[in-house]
Amino acid sequence: MSIEVQHITKLYKDQKALDDISFKVKNAEIVGFLGPNGAGKSTMMKILTTYIEASEGTAKVNGFDVNSDKKKVQSSVGYLPEHNPLYTDLYVKEYLNFNANVYGTSKSRIDEVIKLTGLSPEAHKKISQLSKGYRQRVGLANALLHNPEVLILDEPTTGLDPNQLVDIRNLIKNIGKEKTVFLSTHIMQEVEAMCDRVIIINKGKIVADKYLKDLRAGQEQIVIVEFDYRVEDAFLLKLPKVTSVKNTHDFIYEITFSTSEDMRSHVFDFAHDNGLKILQLHQKNTSLESLFREMTSST
Ligand code: ADP
Ligand code: MG
Predict the structure, then answer these.
(1) Which pairing describes strands 180-185 and 197-202: parallel, antiparallel, or unpaired?
(2) How much is the pTM?
(3) Does the C-beta of 31 come closer than 6 Å to ligand 1?
(4) Quick one: pLDDT at residue 218?
(5) pLDDT band for position 294 (50/70/90)?
(6) Domain hosting residue 246, numbered range
(7) Which pLDDT score, from 0 to 100, does residue 298 have?
(8) Which of 216, 250, 276 is the last residue of a domain?
């Protein structure tokens, strides 16, 4: 297991920025940590990279405890912090050289990460002369210097233009073939474009944890039906493959099925057999987009 988080809570004074968070990330997975601003994403990442300590709970990265084995955690993770702080007065090579010395990495590794992150054409420039996209590459190159097992990237694509976005996403996807990548974003398209799995966080709590292939395959389906009269939930629960029934409004029901087969005809037959009339019948979108909206809309 690359990342193991157990019951992490983080208090800033009396505000709970993280509230009993638990999850695991397997080797070489690309996991998107998705949530609105203020959800607690950066706080979680700072704990995993040992920059701050949790108030309660434990976390391990690459098998090492973030509290008792800080040094080993640090050598296991590459971290791109939010806003990517760089020394902009330095030349790209100078900057990477400086950090390579801090890490004790070989000089040949600098050329390797420059190549890996596509920095070669800009490597002779001052960081202040680079576009935002290339600055992100410098941040990524820096995070990769000590060849860590796990990459923790805090909003790596924020502020990039559409072309830069595509480039950085491809780069991260490529890196993710070998390394575990845990990246945060508040943009769900980002997760769709890059990740194997999404963990959605809202107000310090995990509200969803799904593999995108399951979301795409539509292994779950919600049918919305309006009858002309009230129906007992227990009655609807007799439908095949039904997992739950919710009466959302007057005679409107949301019926969840555990199948990708279109279940609307079953609902139609059910109504017919029981002398009910159907006023509306459709499938609810169970895409990442609707999941995100449902899980993070404030009430
Ligand atoms: P995200 O990265 O998802 O936008 P953060 O982890 O940065 O969220 O913040 C989560 C919550 O914790 C926010 O309400 C934020 O204001 C608060 N917070 C973050 N850092 C601190 C801090 N150092 N002191 C006090 N409150 C903080
Ligand atoms: Mg943040």
Answers:
(1) unpaired
(2) 0.80
(3) no
(4) 62
(5) confident
(6) 221-293
(7) 63
(8) 216
Please, which residues have CB less than 5 A from ligand 2, an ion?
41-42, 82
Helix H or strand E segment including 266:
helix 264-273
Please check whether residues 194 and 286 belong to one and the same domain: no
- The residue that leads in pLDDT, 210 or 70, is 70
Give pLDDT tens digits for 255-267: 999 887 889 999 9
Position 285 scores a pLDDT of 65
The set of residues, in sequence order, having a beta carbon less than 8 Å from that of 273 and lying 6+ positions away, is: none
Residue identified by tokens 């292994």 is 219
Residue 164 near ligand 1, beta carbon < 6 Å: no
Separation of 122 CA from ligand 2 center, angstroms? 28
Q: Which residue has the higher pLDDT, 87 or 180?
A: 180
Q: What number does the ligand 1 atom closest to the CA of 52 have?
A: 23
- Residue 298 is assigned to a structural domain of this protein: no
Residue 94 maps to which CATH number? 3.40.50.300
Do 130 and 16 have their domain in common?
yes
Those residues with Cβ within 8 angstroms of residue 73's Cβ, 6 or more apart along the chain or in another chain: 48, 49, 50, 61, 62, 64, 65, 66
Q: Give the residue from 44, 39, 11, 43 showing the smallest Cα distance to 297.
A: 39
Mutate to test the pocket of ligand 1, among 37, 42, 48, 292 (most ligand atoms within 8 A of CB): 42
Taking each helix axis from N to C end, the angle separating 132-144 and 92-103, rounded to the nearest 10 degrees, works out to: 20
Q: Is the pLDDT of residue 36 over 70?
A: yes
pLDDT the model gives residue 39: 97
Going by CA atoms, what residue is nearest to atom 19 of ligand 1? 43
Indicate whether 72 and 171 sit together in one domain: yes
Total domain count for the chain?
2
Of the residues 182, 216, 250, which one is the last residue of a structural domain?
216
Quote the ligand 1 centre to 40 CA distance (angstroms). Answer: 6
